[in-house]
């Protein structure tokens, strides 16, 4: 749908009107036959038709093109009233800048930012509404530290709220302790397996060292026996020498 022609100041050229909705072009596209349409209008039309609504020439979505630059410039220069005119806004600006103005217009109807509140309020009055909104939140005046909604004042019970919070904290603490316990048990099991493996390796190394020591002792005994035999042979040779 286009811009309501009643919002515009002064004369609007016929060529700047949508051939379907007959309002001023919004996000315009042009057919090869040079008839112009709002994008939403022509797309909706081509769902059920395959021709131009003005001259019945065959057209397709792929043939639609942006509006000629000079027509686009003429369109952007048109002056129109803000859509919030009925609420008191007296702003008149170009079509090119109307969207920017309306996004920031103080007379725009916007929703209350408090969760649960369905009130639509003018942007300029929002702060005043938030100050009295029944869905506004505030800290409990009794000092329990809870944030409550004004609508819940009558039901708020500090002791009950704190007891509930305490139970939640207790449950959370138990869960954390259990998690820490499982994690420590897992770490201990891992360390225990590692120590068993190390013990096995060390035991094998000890057995190997014992075996090496046994072989060394056997070699030493053999050397000592050979040395005694050699000494005896020397003594015998010495006696034979004396006798000669």
For the structure shown, list the relevant keywords.
elongated; two-stranded antiparallel ribbon; mainly alpha; ligase; 244 residues; Herpes Virus-1; Znf_RING
Question: In a few lines, what is going on in this structure?
Answer:
It comes from Anhinga anhinga. By secondary structure, the chain is mainly α.
Report on this structure.
- The longest helix has 86 residues, at 158-243.
- It is built from 5 helices and 9 strands, in the order ββαβαββαββαββα.
- It has helices spanning 39-48, 69-77, 95-104, 126-132, 158-243, and strands at residues 28-30, 36-38, 65-66, 79-81, 92-94, 109-111, 120-122, 137-139, 147-149.
- The protein has a 3-stranded antiparallel beta sheet with strand order 2-1-3. A two-stranded antiparallel ribbon has the order 4-5. It has a two-stranded antiparallel ribbon with strand order 6-7.
- Among the domains are: 5-104, Zinc/RING finger domain, C3HC4 (zinc finger) (Herpes Virus-1, 2-Layer Sandwich); 109-155, 2-Layer Sandwich (Herpes Virus-1), CATH 3.30.40.
- By secondary structure, the chain is mostly helical.
Mean pLDDT over all positions: 87
CATH topology name of the domain at 5-104, in short, is Herpes Virus-1
- SSE string: EEHEHEEHEEHEEH
Structural class: mainly alpha
Placed side by side, the strands forming the largest sheet appear as: 2-1-3
Task: Please indicate the percent range of residues in DSSP E strands (runs of 2 or more).
Answer: 5-15%
Number of helices: 5
Radius of gyration from CA coordinates: 49 Å
Biggest pleated-sheet summary: 3 strands, antiparallel
CATH class assignment of the domain at 5-104: Alpha Beta
CATH architecture of the domain at 5-104: 2-Layer Sandwich
Helix content: 40-55%
CATH superfamily membership of the domain at 5-104: Zinc/RING finger domain, C3HC4 (zinc finger)
- What sort of overall outline do the alpha carbons produce when their principal axes are compared? elongated
Multimerization status: single chain
Distance between the termini: 144 Å
Low-confidence sequence ranges: none
